[in-house]
Amino acid sequence: MTLVLAAAVGLYVTVTAGQVWWAATSDDARDADAVVVLGAAQYDGRPSKALQGRLDHARALYEQGYVPRIVVTGGRREGDRFTEAAAGAAYLEAQGVPGSVIERETAGGTSYASLAATSRFLRDDGIEQVILVSDPFHNYRITQIAEEVGLEAYPSASTTSPFRGVAELRQMGRETVAVALGRVIGYRRLDDLGLRLDQALAVR
Description:
Elements: H1 2-24, E1 34-37, E2 42-43, E3 46-47, H2 49-63, E4 70-73, H3 84-94, E5 102-105, H4 111-124, E6 129-133, H5 139-148, E7 152-155, H6 166-185, H7 187-192, H8 197-201
């Protein structure tokens, strides 16, 4: 019985890893109501390379006519003067994106919290269909979280992620664990339990 259980768990994790990898290689960009940029580190108002890559990709989607608005997400970490969302919005405006098309979610400290808050105010505006922008290894998990909080989501990842080689494989492994757990207990419960896997996965 123990061997059967171990084999089942091993198969489940292997399949999950394959799904995470496959999603990371896919770009599902299509016409939608908004593009949502998942937050990453900022340094005194200056986006990190990871966040800048995500913002540049979202700007390209906007300029190509896929979406009429951009939502930037992410709160303030202890000691920070700026939220990730504020840094993202300022960067986009400096790149020529009109401030009127940018919306901010400024409280979220995890992907789940940011997407749940974003879902609430977008659905108040009658919006449910969004493109999600993060790093490729996040694609599967954030799409599942978005669906759990009521959004119809399509991932289109940054093409300039700073993670390459071993670092990317390490992130894929962590995402596999997060997805494997989240699908069993639910992503909200995973977040509420204080496991805070996003902090371990945080792009810095």
